[in-house]
Design brief:
Blueprint (H helix, E strand, L loop, with lengths): L1 E9 L3 H12 L4 E4 L6 H5 L3 E3 L5 H5 L6 H12 L5 H9 L1 H10 L22 E2 L17 E3 L7 H14 L3 E3 L2 E9 L2 E9 L5 H15 L6 H18 L1 E13 L8 H7 L7 E2 L8 H8 L4 E2 L4 E3 L13 E3 L13 H12 L4 E5 H10 L6 H13 L1 E4 L2 H8 L3 H14 L19 E5 L11 E4 L2 E2 L7 E3 L5 E7 L16 H25 L1
Parallel strand pairs: 1-2, 1-9, 2-6, 9-20, 10-17
Antiparallel strand pairs: 3-5, 4-5, 7-8, 8-9, 11-18, 12-17, 13-14, 14-16, 15-16, 19-20
Helix pairs in contact: 1-7, 1-17, 4-5, 8-9, 15-16
């Protein structure tokens, strides 16, 4: 089987859909191929887009924000992941990005969450999704987590609207088609070699679709189930798949996700990140990145992994003190979960405990249902019932938890006497912990059904930051090849806050789609 189109997009999540929308909207003939049914990690996500600078959603909520404040904060988080000009372009585009998403059918709403949380309930769709308040002395904070308006985790809705928009723009979609190689001619990528189930029986395609669906969810929460279902899907692909060659007259965009479900790649590039829950689907196996490498593409930030250790909801737990095994303080407890996870893994062997007094326990129980979605409520029950030990004194609870009692006493004495937190926790969350009994809640990063630590990879193919074209190992560009989303190094490849990956998928996907059309038009004009 053979086909010929202008542009092939590999992977149909947010980045692939945005690339397809831009390219097809510019008049190119676009074919999107996806090994499964589309959606990828986007559909399994919370559907949060990090945006600011005065978006229409922020204005509806009565929130004041400026591009200068957003840029000042993101410079602290993004670091050197991208060039300053690229970050500034991302910020400058932010207001327009939200408007563009809404024009594609993605709904947002300016209902502001009143508490600090890892993810808001269905009553709220705008919230502080990062560590903005912790850096208030360096950058004016504002809520910038724009959650697509839909019940539960709304990534499925966000993806569905973008997928529909890609089809409306004229892109064709071929699901159940795995790209196994890139075609090249004179150093230029000219197409893809695939294995497709397009010609298989209806029963085979239905079975494959169901296997991939359940491997995504609930397989997301049960990795062993995901692996078993993926193996069965692979057997169907090998037995019933037929070869397909697709020529791409203009070029190829790789938007096939990261490599968080590839244990070998994780072991090679980020061995410290074990015991977490891979936040991705079976398609996040690094195959897109390896495709780029097979034609000389360079990679970067492959050791960067975001590990999320959330201690909220309920918000009352933010009044606790997070300590290591020696009793020393870990970090400001109100930081975003990825920052907490980074501190625990890189400096404390993944181990940590949250000290809270009796008042905090009572308030956390009172808040548990009203501040939580169902999966968060399960976490709250685990933390307060299974992971918690208590004692009449700080020394007694330290002994039960295995935390150094003298070190913990010094930390709590200093915290209670400080008044203002030296690590930057907002004043409204700081109060002396003096009312016993005391509790230590084990928040260590380890395999746990009740308290998983989601992780996603942040590195990928290095690209020209003006266009998204893949850089060649040793210098130069890989002609005809572009990359976007978690298949590429991007805005969030150094440090992650909620919504920054999806925002980068939109930013980099649109960039790749526009640039590929523009580059090929220039070459032929």
């Amino acid at each position: 089987m053979q086909e010929s189109v202008d542009i092939v997009v590999v992977g149909f999540g947010a980045a692939g859909a945005c690339a397809a929308i831009e390219a097809a909207g510019s008049g190119a003939e676009v074919l999107v191929v996806d090994r499964y049914g589309g959606g990828g990690a986007t559909a399994a996500s919370g559907g949060v887009v990090y945006a600011g600078g005065g978006t229409s959603v922020q204005r509806d909520a009565g929130v004041m924000d400026t591009p200068e404040a957003m840029a000042a904060y993101l410079r602290l988080e993004v670091g050197d992941a991208v060039e300053p000009a690229t970050l500034q372009a991302f910020v400058d585009d932010s207001v327009g990005t939200v408007d563009w998403l809404m024009s594609q059918g993605v709904p947002f709403e300016g209902s502001l969450c009143p508490t600090k949380t890892s993810y808001p309930t269905n009553d709220y769709y705008l919230y502080y999704s990062g560590s903005e308040r912790s850096f208030r002395d360096q950058a004016e904070p504002a809520p910038r987590g724009h959650r697509a308006k839909g019940p539960g985790t709304s990534g499925k809705l966000l993806y569905a609207r973008l997928a529909a928009a890609a089809v409306r723009a004229g892109a064709r979609v071929r699901p159940q088609t795995e790209v196994v190689g890139l075609l090249t001619e004179d150093g230029r990528v000219t197409g893809v070699e695939c294995r497709t189930l397009a010609g298989a029986s209806r029963w085979v395609r239905l079975r494959h679709r169901l296997l991939s669906k359940y491997a995504a969810k609930p397989g997301l929460y049960v990795p062993a189930l995901r692996k078993a279902l993926t193996r069965r899907a692979k057997r169907l692909e090998l037995r019933h798949g037929k070869p397909l060659t697709i020529t791409a007259r203009r070029g190829v965009v790789i938007a096939a996700g990261g490599f968080v479900t590839n244990r070998e790649m994780l072991r090679e590039h980020a061995p410290a990140y074990r015991g977490g829950l891979p936040l991705g689907t079976s398609g996040d196996d690094g195959s897109g990145i390896r495709l780029g490498q097979s034609v000389g593409g360079a990679v970067g930030a492959m050791d960067k992994v975001s590990a999320w250790r959330f201690i909220t909801p309920p918000s009352a737990l933010l009044e606790g003190v997070l300590v290591a095994a020696d009793g020393s303080r870990v970090c400001d407890e109100s930081r975003y979960g990825a920052a907490i996870g980074h501190e625990l893994i890189t400096h404390h062997g993944g181990k940590g405990w949250l000290l809270i007094d009796e008042r905090g326990v009572r308030e956390a129980r009172r808040q548990a249902r009203s501040q939580s979605l169902w999966f968060q409520y399960l976490q709250v029950r685990y933390l307060l019932r299974v992971a918690r030990v208590s004692g009449r004194t700080v020394a007694e609870v330290a002994g039960k938890a295995g935390v150094d009692a003298e070190g913990l006493a010094r930390t709590i004495d200093a915290y209670n006497a400080a008044g203002q937190d030296p690590l930057g926790k907002p004043d409204e969350l700081v109060r002396p912990l003096v009312e016993g009994p005391f509790s230590l809640i084990d928040v260590s990063i380890k395999p746990s059904v009740g308290y998983p630590c989601p992780m996603l990879t942040l590195g990928g193919l290095r690209v020209d930051e003006r266009t998204g074209q893949v850089l060649r190992e040793g210098g130069g560009l890989v002609a005809g090849l572009y990359a976007a989303g978690r298949s590429a190094v991007g805005i969030c490849s150094s440090s992650y806050v909620s919504g920054l990956s999806l925002a980068d998928c939109v930013f980099s996907g649109r960039r790749a789609g526009r640039s590929l059309v523009k580059e090929s038009d220039s070459a032929h004009g």
